[in-house]
Amino acid sequence: MKPFLTFCALCCFIGIFRLPIEYYTFLRILVSVAALLVLYVTLHAKQHYFSIIFLVVLIVFNPVFPIYLFRKSLWIPIDTVTGILFLLITFVDKLELKSEVTNTEETADHSANLSFPSRDRIINTKKPKEEQLYGKQSDNGKS
């Protein structure tokens, strides 16, 4: 996923230049697929701030119902910001994975030092031998 998002960012930066309309159609499809992918991943990771941002990107670059701004000067900042967002989501995932690994290592170190008594209790359904012996004797004495 990382190379794909980096490729999308690169295509957004290339979209700043004056190119044929076919490239921008390709860019709309590419960015929409990537935004949909990022939206899916961020919703499952419960990162709602990125989900909202990439939902807006998906709406703006939507190839089914395209939004035409008709001026290149309006698309240049949009392409630039979208490229930066794709690079940001690429590197933020790496930073979060590294922080999760260090948090896991720190937690493992702390839990190794602490020892907690077991809360489990073993319940023996069989009576101890002493109770079985005394119980049989008392039954014999009553009869």
Can you give me a brief rundown of this structure?
Keywords: Membrane, Transmembrane, Transmembrane helix. The protein is mainly α and 143 residues long.
> What string, H for helix and E for strand, traces the elements in order?
HHHHH
Structural class: mainly alpha
- CA gyration radius, whole angstroms: 32 Å
Distance between the termini: 82 Å
Transmembrane segments: 28-43, 50-68, 74-92
Region (Disordered): 102-143
Biased composition (Polar residues): 102-116
Keywords: Membrane, Transmembrane, Transmembrane helix
Q: What does this molecule look like?
A:
The chain is rod-shaped, with a radius of gyration of 32 Å. The protein is built from 5 helices and no strands. The model has no long low-confidence stretch (mean pLDDT 81). The chain is mainly α and 143 residues long.
Q: Can you give keywords for this protein?
A:
143 residues, mainly alpha, DUF6804, transmembrane helix, membrane
Please outline the helices and strands.
Layout (H helix, E strand, L loop, with lengths): L1 H13 L6 H24 L3 H13 L11 H42 L15 H14 L1
Helix pairs in contact: 1-2, 1-4, 2-3
